[in-house]
Write a structure and sequence with these properties.
This protein is mostly beta strands and about 210 residues long. About 10% of the residues lie in helices and about 40% in strands. The protein has helices at about 40-45, 60-70, 120-125, and strands at about 5-15, 20-30, 30-40, 45-55, 75-85, 95, 105-110, 115-120, 165, 170-180, 185-190, 200-205.
Amino acid sequence: MRGIIGKKVGMTQLFDKSGAVIPVTIIEAGPCYVTQVKTADSDEYNAVQLGFEEVAERKLSKGERGHLKQAGVPNLRHLREFRYKATPEFKIGDVVKADVFQEGELVDVVGTSKGRGFAGAVKRYGFAGGPKTHGQSDRHRTPGSRGAGTTPGHTYPGMRGPGHMGDARTTVQNLKVALVDPERNLIAVRGAIPGSRGSLVVVREAVKAKKK
């Protein structure tokens, strides 16, 4: 599965040939280095490990420094693995740039959503809240009943309610690539992606794209 690691730059807009406005998110994609290649013969599955964002040597652990030194690549902060169905054609030390994708392609973007702290059920899950008439004064934003009384006598695990919102791995699927600029390592995808500006994202080919 083709993919690349990058950072979210922010949102802007482009104009197509007809003059229509296209909202896009700019991603600083790569350059990434191939730090490890796995094959079915040696590791029982095919995969490529990519590294992104050069950092000072002191910011890496001894194991990370040794792993990257053996691969002959710079000191990289982020490592991610991409699985392939067949044996990958990459070699250790290869550089992957934004042109791994083409304009018009569908991709999935994986990132960490913005943290919202502790949130109630109305904000967290879109509950309607209680009625706002008939004298009610303090139940406008409550989730309401979430279970029976005597049987089972408790609420089941996983019931939706108040709790920590956001700051979780999130995937947005089937986003169309609107622009690819390999010289500046930029990819623009149509629509919004998870995370705040400067957050780490993974762009990979869409797994649920409709085949024509």
